[in-house]
Write a structure and sequence with these properties.
2 helices, 150 residues, seven-stranded antiparallel beta sheet, 43% strand, alpha+beta
């Protein structure tokens, strides 16, 4: 199991941060374009516990992968958790935390993920997956910095 923790200061109110992240369609704003991320079907304007989100993403070699996540926990304006139900990872548990601080919001992402124990999973992790996860969160950081620039 691997863990990635990222913190980012956003110069916005807690309400603005929550409204942005609680809107599933905004996933497109923080996902690298080369992943060709596409949400499938109808999604609501605001997430809720139990929400299933299906999408295609092309994480490697331009091969589309069907990914299904569920919003499993929400504490309004504090945190929410999405977990993979079907997709490329053995485990994907992503916590999004929000804390009001002077001048804005401190957002903390905690991602626990596992590509599996089989030999190809281990090799893929070493050669590709761990770097790709870092790149996605680097992109997300820069996108949010630009999106919420004041």
């Amino acid at each position: 199991m691997h863990t990635l923790t990222r913190k980012q200061f956003l110069p916005i109110t807690l309400d603005e941060a929550w409204d942005f992240f609680a809107t599933p369609k905004n996933l497109n704003e923080v996902t690298p374009k080369e992943l060709d991320f596409k949400i499938l079907g109808h999604i609501p304007e605001v997430m809720y516990e139990g929400l299933i989100i299906q999408y295609y993403v092309k994480p490697m070699l331009n091969i589309p992968v069907h990914w299904v996540t569920e919003i499993t926990h929400i504490k309004d304006k504090k945190y929410f958790v999405d977990e993979q139900r079907k997709g490329p990872y053995k485990t994907w548990h992503h916590e999004h935390h929000f804390e009001e601080v002077t001048g804005g919001v401190m957002m903390t992402d905690i991602l626990h993920y596992d590509v599996g124990k089989w030999i190809f999973g281990w090799i893929a992790g070493k050669l590709f997956v761990h770097n790709k996860v870092q790149e996605i969160f680097d992109f997300r950081y820069k996108s949010l910095e630009s999106y919420f620039k004041k």
